[in-house]
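DM from R.C. (forwarded with permission)

"hey, sorry to bug you on a friday — could you get me a structure for this? deadline for the figure draft is monday and I only need the backbone to look sensible"
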Amino acid sequence: MYKVRTQDSVGKVLIHDVTKIVSDGKVHEKYAVFKKNHVIKEEDIEVLLSIGKEYIYAGDTDSGMVHENDAALAMGRMCENEHLIHTDVSEGRVDIVAQEEGLLKVNVEKLYAINTVENFMISSIHNNSEVKKGQRIAGMKIIPLEIEEELLEYVLNIQKDTAIFTLIPYVIKKAGLVITGSEIYHGRREDAFTPVMKSKLGRYGCELIGSRVAYDDEDLIASYIEDFINEGAEIVFCTGGMSVDPDDKTPVAIRKAATEVVTHGAPVVPGAMQMVAYKGEIPVIGVPGGALFNRVTTLDIIMPRLMANDRITRRDIVEMAHGGYCLKCDVCHFPQCGFGKS
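My reply, with the result:
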């Protein structure tokens, strides 16, 4: 390739997209005014000069080098797998798009490894993000116009054994709900948790197969957990009774029913009394009362993982401390915010 003075470029073939940025107080946009392989005409000269292009690159990619578009496409193919595809290249960049709703897993170490290679970049949304169909989750490009073939091959081999991005569709479709509290059981207070949980589950396509109200008795609560599992529930939620009060028996009941208790307590505000346990492969989740009057809590952070059947560990809970303090903004944008992100 070679550099050409714009006034002398009529008839030359562009080797790269030429970007125009408009920001006049009313319109703000960025787009390719001329695409790669465009043959420059006389009328294009003034357009190029108006956007500050005194020179352009023309010709062919140098021997042993890979053009930015081809490098971006190669990186896109590297990141493409089941449920994830890459876009067409534009302005030297390719994005990755989700083909299904689900949970995005990011191999952060591999992501960092690629970005430590000079002149390569991949950026993504956070690990464990909930993703909608058609959502863009990552973008990638090289920084210069061309890159060495050997360097590109090195980068492509970083992902050789393990994917950088994986999308896990939501697979949990049946949930059971145990409402705890003697005051609700005896009719002194109305159950407010069922509609809240129906709404939370509905966004993931999960059906509430039933709800049962239990007074504060650990054996009764544990038996209801077992009943739901026997009836086909793929996850069981127990709401309320998660505090240190002497009448609150839900944590004890969950411990009785579960084969593994991951945690009772999380370094998250709100939602510090969250409980996560498993009966074999089936999650048994203790939901503190704060989920009734807080729009988002620990439960909302872990829900995408629960619905994707992505097993949660104690370490996962501990790592929520960084980013686990909700600012309770006047207008809530969760999950498009820092709450629960690290």
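R.C.: lifesaver. The longest strand covers residues 207-214.
me: no worries. The chain has a mean pLDDT of 94.
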